[in-house]
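Tip: read the tokens left to right.
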């Protein structure tokens, strides 16, 4: 697959690829930088190979644009980012363990500590550690409970080989379950005041990611770590801040590898006329590495089961809506009617209506949900 900028030549040997607009990522970064506090740092979240856009390429781009630091989950991403952005701080989100201590030292990584057991494991290595303490404010992810935060900070401070450079949290920003973002931060505020009074408050406190950036400017604090927002993917379209965000995913494309004439030898093909030319194409696996469950990033799986009726199953409707903008001839905009290929070679998805059936106009997103079955 190709994740080069749109202007690069198409890969001659690939049957399916995505096209990434790197200029959109740079533009999104500048839009974020322009609205946050000038003293706030930007930790660019590049997990999952920078959301499928290439961690190394994006890190080089954002480092040149002025990003202060990066956040990653995997060692593979840490290696790519360190090569592209030497000298920039890299925060490892929870995921790696003490067995990676040599790599953490060699790559100069800042590790996340989510509890006393986590800290004990890293201390057993005997290595000098740069850490961010992560607190779980109600998102039910990795992180120490608010009630145990001060004890964990005290334990870190008592160890001569541990430098606590920051404290951070990821919020449940959607309100689908649990406490609101405001209630979550309210649990942290008195703890920060107590830590400050004791002289134990880390230099960097960070709680704001993509959605919080849009809805809660008061959460900017010392740093922010946008991820999906950098790549033009947000759940919210409105908020306290309105940013000119552009999608990094320009196109998802696949080559036609075979073309046939419809024939009754296959039996009757639903929604196919005698002039229809069914086509076969390949588009397997994840699109652009996207598919991170916790970031609501979409997957696309397309296959051709019998060589005559390809099925197109976008699992998240916003990818389908994106494709309908990129390839307008492929989506008719009608409910339960999705043309899988351009007009003259199109065969219908399995949810297509029978020929002559009138269909109600619907949005591309509704069309995506219908085709998803």
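Filled-in amino acids:
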């Amino acid at each position: 697959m190709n994740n080069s900028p749109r202007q690069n030549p198409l890969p001659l040997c690939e049957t399916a690829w995505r096209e990434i607009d790197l200029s959109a990522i740079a533009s999104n970064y500048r839009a974020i930088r322009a609205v946050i506090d000038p003293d706030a740092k930007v930790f660019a979240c590049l997990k999952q190979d920078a959301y499928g856009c290439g961690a190394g390429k994006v890190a080089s781009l954002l480092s040149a644009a002025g990003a202060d630091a990066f956040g990653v989950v995997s060692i593979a991403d840490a290696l790519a980012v360190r090569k592209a952005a030497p000298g920039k701080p890299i925060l490892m989100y929870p995921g790696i363990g003490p067995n990676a201590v040599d790599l953490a030292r060699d790559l100069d990584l800042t590790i996340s500590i989510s509890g006393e057991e986590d800290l004990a494991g890293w201390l057993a290595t005997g290595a000098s550690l740069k850490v961010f303490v992560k607190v779980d404010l109600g998102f039910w992810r990795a992180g120490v409970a608010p009630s145990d935060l001060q004890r964990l900070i005290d334990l870190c401070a008592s160890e001569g080989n541990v430098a606590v450079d920051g404290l951070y949290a990821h919020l449940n920003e959607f309100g689908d379950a649990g406490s609101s973002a405001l209630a979550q931060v309210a649990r942290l505020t008195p703890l920060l005041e107590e830590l400050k009074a004791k002289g134990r408050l880390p230099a960097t406190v960070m709680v704001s990611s993509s959605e919080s950036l849009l809805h809660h400017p008061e959460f900017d604090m010392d740093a922010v770590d946008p991820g999906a927002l950098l790549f033009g993917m947000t759940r919210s379209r409105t908020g306290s801040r309105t940013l000119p965000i552009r999608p990094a995913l320009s196109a998802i494309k696949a080559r036609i590898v075979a073309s046939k004439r419809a024939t009754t030898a296959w039996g009757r093909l639903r929604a196919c006329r005698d002039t229809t030319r069914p086509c076969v194409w390949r588009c397997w696996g994840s699109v652009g590495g996207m598919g991170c469950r916790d970031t609501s990033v979409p997957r696309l799986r397309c296959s051709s089961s019998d060589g005559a009726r390809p099925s197109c199953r976008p699992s998240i409707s916003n990818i389908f809506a994106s494709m309908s903008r990129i390839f307008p001839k492929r989506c008719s905009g009608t409910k339960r009617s999705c043309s899988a290929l351009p007009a003259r070679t199109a065969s219908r998805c399995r949810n297509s209506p029978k020929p002559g059936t009138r269909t109600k106009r619907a949005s591309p997103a509704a069309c995506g949900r219908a085709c998803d079955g």
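The longest strand covers residues 162-168. The CA atoms of residues 14 and 294 lie 29 Å apart.
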